[in-house]
Amino acid sequence: MTQANSRKADHPVDSVFLERWSPRAFSPEALPEQDLRTIFEAARWAPSAYNSQPWRFIFARHGTPEFDKILGLLIEFNQSWAKNAPILAILLSKKTFVPPGKTEPVAMHSHSADAGAAWGFLALQATKLGYAVHAMTGFDIPRTAVEFEIPDDYQVELAFVLGRRADKSILPEALQARETPSPRNPQSVYVFEGAFKPE
Predict the structure, then answer these.
(1) Distance CA 164, CA 129 (A)
(2) Which parts of the chain are beta strand (E)?
(3) Residue 13 has what pLDDT?
(4) Closest CA to 163 of 64, 63, 25
(5) CA atoms of 74 and 88, how far apart (whole Å)
(6) What pLDDT was estimated at residue 172?
(7) Number of Cβ atoms within 10 Å of the Cβ of 92
(8) Residue 126 belongs to some domain of the structure
(9) Cut 0.85: pTM above it
(10) Structural domain range at position 129
(11) Of 12, 19, 105, 193, which sits most exposed with the smallest number of CB within 10 A?
(12) Looking at the domain assignment, is residue 112 inside a domain?
């Protein structure tokens, strides 16, 4: 079976799925522009209902006022480690779309799921290039919408950090022990044939 990062898959998968994890120790080393664009390009090719492509990304580079703006939206715990990263970003999704042959927008049921697919593609491409990403919901979502003047037609989904991993010694001692890839539930918890089986 596939093994990577002290993880072992129950069934054969590409190793990139096991190599991707969410560290908190990040180096402030800047990403080359080409790598950054390649990572966002991967998100472009995610599947979406009606090919509506509802994902939107706002990103900022370390050392800019925009970076400080996003950092200030994070809860204090996330600020304590995310401050070192070269890139902070926010993922949004568009809640409506104009169906083929129509002229007026309608609600898009899968906007969050489709944006999540784009996030997943981005995270895997970053991993393949030797970078790490860490998504967060620990931030002030309502204030994010206000400060970035997000229209009501969009939903703030998550914030994330992107960059090279650093040695865990840069983290507070309490976080160093948590700086390891996490396990996953077996398929029996989330895959059901023919009928749903609640926990």
Answers:
(1) 10
(2) 3-4, 7-8, 55-61, 87-94, 96-97, 106-107, 132-136, 154-163
(3) 94
(4) 25
(5) 10
(6) 87
(7) 23
(8) yes
(9) yes
(10) 28-166
(11) 193
(12) yes
